[in-house]
Amino acid sequence: MPARALIAWSSGKDSAWALHEARRSGDYELVGALTTVTETFSRVSMHGVREELLAAQLDAAGLTPIRVPIPYPCPNEVYEARMATALADAKTAGVTHIIFGDLFLEDVRRYREDKLAGTGIAPVFPLWQRPTDALVREMIDGGVETYLACVDLKQLPIVFAGRQLDHALLADLPASADPCGERGEFHTFVAAGPMLKRKIPIKVGDVVEREGFAFADLLPAQAA
Fold first, then answer.
1. Looking at 93-185, which runs of residues are DSSP E strands?
2. Residue 148 pLDDT class (50, 70, 90 cuts)
3. Coil, strand, or helix at residue 82?
């Protein structure tokens, strides 16, 4: 019998592809998507994606939303306390695993493993150490339509904010940037792909700079 699992869901391509891989494995019954939302802005934390789009995305993915609200700014102890509550609730509901889309950052993986130690919930990393250049091209060629919702201006120029992550964008990335943005160069929103039952129509609104980041305001659009 497949293990009951949550997906750590950021609204971006890596968590979406991790969902795709977890489903293809047949080892897990995905029963929910765990997402931190900055309640001050009603947006996905770090990505800056509107909750309205998150809800549409998770509905298309067939996932039950598990929203973890955090304040802005958010002290680490507040974040960890709210995540611990969400994980305890998940354990009570029979969840035994949580799927992460992490790629190669050892400190991030270690942090997740440390925080889950003793909870009865095991972390799973289906994309771990896959070469990111090949991985992002596999996503694009596999039908993932994703947009750069947030750009770190210390690593990329503002013109990348709001662009679709396609082969043309990969060619434009500076050599210093990881093709998957794993070092925080950018964060994304997935509008279509094999993990979604339908496309989420969007349009790109204003680009806003805040604290060294550029956020593209992705807006719901009418289906064509």
1. 97-99, 122-124, 145-152
2. very high
3. helix
CATH class of 144-220: alpha beta
| Mean pLDDT, range 68-88, rounded to an integer | 97
Task: Give dist(CA 185, CA 26) in Å, integer.
Answer: 32
Find all residues with CB under 8 Å of 191, minimum gap 6, and list them: 57, 145, 146, 147, 199, 200, 201, 202
Taking only the tens place, the pLDDT of each residue in 167-223 is 999 999 999 999 999 999 999 999 999 999 999 999 999 999 999 999 999 999 975
Would you list the domain boundaries of the chain?
3-124, 144-220
E runs forming strands in 39-152: 43-44, 65-70, 97-99, 122-124, 145-152
Gap between the Cα atoms of 35 and 44, Å rounded: 7
Q: How far apart are CA 166 and CA 153, in angstroms?
A: 20
Q: What is the DSSP string of 177-216?
A: S-TT-TTSSEEEEEEESTTSSS---EEEEEEEEETTEEEE
pLDDT (tens digit per residue) in 97-146: 999 999 999 999 999 999 999 999 999 999 999 999 999 999 999 999 99
pTM of the model: 0.97
Q: Write out the two tokens for 173.
A: 């990335």
* Residues contacting residue 62 through CB under 8 Å, at least 6 positions apart: 197
Coil, strand, or helix at residue 68? strand
CATH code, 3-124: 3.40.50.620
CA 22 to chain centre: 15
**What's the mean per-residue pLDDT of the chain?**
97
